[in-house]
Design goal:
By secondary structure, this protein is α/β, with parallel strands linked by helices. It contains 5 helices and 9 strands; from the N terminus they run E-E-E-H-H-E-H-E-H-E-E-E-E-H. The strands form 3 sheets. Strands 5-4-3-8-9 form a 5-stranded mixed β-sheet. It has one domain (30-119, 134-154): Glutaredoxin (3-Layer(aba) Sandwich), CATH 3.40.30. Strand 4 (64-70), helix 3 (74-83) and strand 5 form a beta-alpha-beta unit. 29% of the residues lie in helices and 31% in strands. It is globular and about 45 Å long.
Amino acid sequence: MTIGQNTKAPAFEAPATGDQTLSLESFAGRTLVLYFYPRDNTPGCTQEGEAFRDLYADFQAANAEVVGVSRDSLRKHDNFRAKYDFPFHLISDADESLCKAFDVLKEKNMYGRKHIGIERSTFVIDGQGVVRGIWRGVKVAKHADEVLQTVRDLG
């Protein structure tokens, strides 16, 4: 199933930081900003997390929750979250089920070697579980601001 604008988001249940298990139902009645990123503690992923962190109060004021997703372990996520004071949870998608459901795994080429990695992507899902915003191949600069504007426009 391809995820598109105004389609139902795939249901999920996944392990997250702080010994949480998060599911799509966890956010019923609230807007969910689900952002996928390649790896903890890399420059772009850190900048992206910091941007969402710095606007977190604004997302909360708009009745939205932010959740980051990568394939890193919960231990790495807990350390990454603590190091940069992220107020939101990070999901560990070690089995790639969430990445596959949202179709964010892409072939990448690094130093001439091909591998499958996460394409930096963000989804805004409304309180009824409907996808209202999609960004793929995200450039980090000003991205969190754009997402916040979309969330506010839903309100």
